[in-house]
Amino acid sequence: MNRDQAATTEILPTDTPALFDAAVARAAALLRAGELVALPTETVYGLAANALDGAAVSRIFAAKGRPEQNPIIVHVDGLAMARRCVREWPALADKLSAAFWPGPLTLVLPRSERIPAVVTAGGETVGVRWPLHPLIRAVIRACGFPLAAPSANLSSRISPTSAEHVRRGLGGKIRLIVDGGQSLVGIESTVLDLTVTPPRILRPGMIHAESLLAVSGALQTEVAATEGPLRSPGLLTKHYSPKARLTVWPWRDETELNARLAASGLPLASIRIIAHTRIPAGLEADRVSVIPRDAEAFARAIYAELHRCDEQGVALIVVEALPPEPEWAAIADRLRRASR
Ligand code: TXA
Ligand code: MG
Description:
Blueprint: H1 3-7, E1 10-12, H2 17-32, E2 37-39, E3 46-50, H3 54-64, E4 74-75, H4 79-84, H5 91-100, E5 105-110, E6 125-129, H6 134-143, E7 147-148, H7 163-170, E8 176-178, E9 190-193, E10 200-203, H8 209-216, E11 245-249, H9 254-263, E12 271-275, E13 288-290, H10 295-311, E14 316-320, H11 329-338
Parallel strand pairs: 1-8, 2-8, 4-6, 5-9, 11-14, 12-13, 12-14
Antiparallel strand pairs: 2-3, 3-7, 4-7, 5-6, 9-10
Helix pairs in contact: 2-6
The chain binds threonylcarbamoyladenylate (TXA) and magnesium ion.
């Protein structure tokens, strides 16, 4: 990226009502003109385009270097807009949307003809989500059309949870980033396929299987990406990766951890530990990050930690093994993918 290009990416704050309104107006004007805008959502930042404008959506693939067979989620504000994106709206979609929308759940449904093929990667289904973050909701209302938005990172890299993460990855490639603060959920939405019975989780998220099951009554849990045809390209293993090698280890105590670190053969200075329970005390403070043993707090913080490791040129990231409870499943999934 050269200086001139970097200068073309505007970053707008939203800290006061007036700034918020100005950012919404600017974002909506660019989106109406077919441009890309990075917007905050409660999960991760999204790179948005008018979902009804195939040419605008094509620019998303170019900016991210996204494989063209990977469909993009359509973001709506309200049930009426969601229903206009799909051909069928099953009773279960009513129940799930009542329970979890607006929020971090994407429903995959038969695509309406209004949605251009580039959004769905040529497929007959579309992923629809009503996000919770007030900024993207206001932008969708101002536009009057739904927004196609993948995570606002270069393809196969870690999703951004702050405007600064977006700028580092896409600065110079897009006109505007709206800064809506740190993403509250911190990992990507749960993707649930409602075109099969029972519905199938294509990508786990912080709305976990148990919560969905309570509403849907039955559920197929995630299938391995290697089995059968590609149900969702998001299940591709090379996804969500930091530049460093990442590994998840259990350790009983610091002696065991130190022995494993020594066995890695890497200089300690190139390793970062991310711990939540058995926190090593003997290592230098800047080698160890502590995130509370609380799934929501951990999800909110983990991508920022991984981004920081990338910036600092860390060679190996060692994450303390996660608790087995269902609320940790999506975080474990992302770490598994990041460790490949
Ligand atoms: O939380 C999120 O979902 C964020 C924010 C911006 O909303 N978006 C996001 O988008 O993570 P992306 O493109 O990075 O991931 C979308 C995932 C991909 O794994 C994609 O393959 C899957 O959803 N997906 C989208 N549409 C689909 C469809 N019609 N059928 C199956 N999978 C779909
Ligand atoms: Mg993504």
